[in-house]
Design goal:
- By secondary structure, this protein is α+β, with helices and mostly antiparallel strands.
- 58% of the residues lie in helices and 16% in strands.
- The strands form two sheets. It has a seven-stranded mixed β-sheet with strand order 4-5-3-6-7-9-8. A two-stranded antiparallel sheet has the order 1-2.
- α1 crosses α2, α1 runs antiparallel to α3 and α7 runs antiparallel to α8.
- The longest helix is centred in the first third of the chain and has 43 residues.
- The N terminus is likely disordered.
Length: 338
């Protein structure tokens, strides 16, 4: 597949090639038109081979160009014909103009490359559109684009500066995904008011547990939640606390017939976001893995990527499983009192 930038890149190379060709042609024109003026200092300059060739070339060029030049440009200046100087001046102007066009085309191409590379870098690093970091990157890009030259070195400088800013937004955090098992079936044949009450009380229960564990952000769906914590221990313990609390909730709080049961998934890693970024707008593989852990968990268990709990003191509370989810070996916690 041909890269979309290829035609523009070829055009830039053609323009730079044309500029070089015009530069050579202009130099040759200067030699041909002005060179004979130097040889007049010698005796019989036309008797020598090289001067003779120059005189012939000069006369040929002037014979072809002067009639055309006379139609558009006055060539008689201070009582003398200055056609040769005017031709040289025009050649220099055309060469400079072609160079300027080539340079502008190169700059425009580099700016397109800068934008395209920045967009790919945004996706790779998980920079969300509209986030504070995205705004800072945009500001840096515009400053780079406002310069006279935008080259590969400038591109690398922009990314290096943005990477430093990005690092300030990077945080090692843990995500807990919780989903109510069979929520659709629980609502079948039940009084809508009772179901609404039960799920509102369930949400209050979960939020109380989250606050007690220092939750940073939450994103709720009708029957599920994704929560962000500063530490893996807090995420895991929150999942355990919810499961343990459901015993009392099912026996003393809910009104519907079916008991509440949940599946919990936990994962942790470096995620880029700032405090103003809503959790539901953050797209990151760390979050995706937590969600996949939850989908693969059994009812009233916490399924977690084993690698993130190995440093924990409560490792013995988890049982290693044969499950491999998104490339991660999984461990599970079950309430032994259940």
């Amino acid at each position: 597949m041909v890269h979309r930038e290829a035609p523009k890149s070829i055009l830039v190379h053609v323009l730079f090639g044309l500029r070089k060709l015009l530069g050579v042609a202009t130099f040759a024109l200067i030699v041909v038109l002005l060179g004979p003026k130097l040889f007049v200092l010698f005796d019989n300059p036309k008797n020598a081979t090289i001067p003779a060739k120059l005189f012939e070339a000069r006369e040929y060029i002037l014979s072809k160009s002067v009639p055309v030049l006379h139609r558009y440009v006055p060539t008689n200046i201070a009582g003398s014909d200055r056609s040769d100087w005017i031709l040289i001046g025009l050649a220099i102007v055309v060469t400079i103009f072609s160079g300027a066009v080539a340079q502008r085309s190169q700059t425009a191409q580099n700016r397109r490359l800068l934008r395209k590379s920045a967009q790919a870098w945004r996706r790779k690093e998980g920079v969300k559109p509209g986030s504070r970091l995205d705004a800072e990157l945009e500001t840096t890009l515009r400053m780079a684009e406002s310069g006279k030259a935008v080259n590969r070195q400038e591109l690398l400088r922009v990314f290096a500066e943005t990477k430093k800013k990005l690092d300030t937004f990077g945080r090692e955090v843990a995500f807990l995904a919780i989903d109510v098992v069979g929520s659709a079936g629980m609502k079948a044949g039940e009084d809508p008011a009772s179901i609404q009450y039960d799920f509102e009380e369930y949400r209050k229960l979960v939020e109380r547990i989250f606050r007690a564990r220092g939750v940073l952000k939450t994103a709720w769906t009708p029957d599920g939640v994704m929560a962000c914590f500063a530490h893996v221990e807090d995420a895991c313990q929150s999942g355990k606390d919810v499961i343990k609390s459901l015993k009392v909730f099912n026996s003393e709080v809910k009104l519907s017939k079916a008991d509440f049961a949940v599946r919990c998934g936990v994962n942790a890693g470096l995620v880029y976001f700032d405090d103003s970024t809503p959790l539901e707008t953050i797209s990151d593989r760390v979050i995706d893995v937590a969600g996949h852990m939850q989908k693969n968990a059994e009812p009233n268990t916490v399924l977690v990527a084993r690698k993130i709990i190995e440093p924990l003191r409560q490792l013995e509370e988890f049982t290693h499983t044969s499950q491999v989810i998104d490339g991660y070996e999984a461990s599970v916690w079950r309430d032994k009192a259940a």
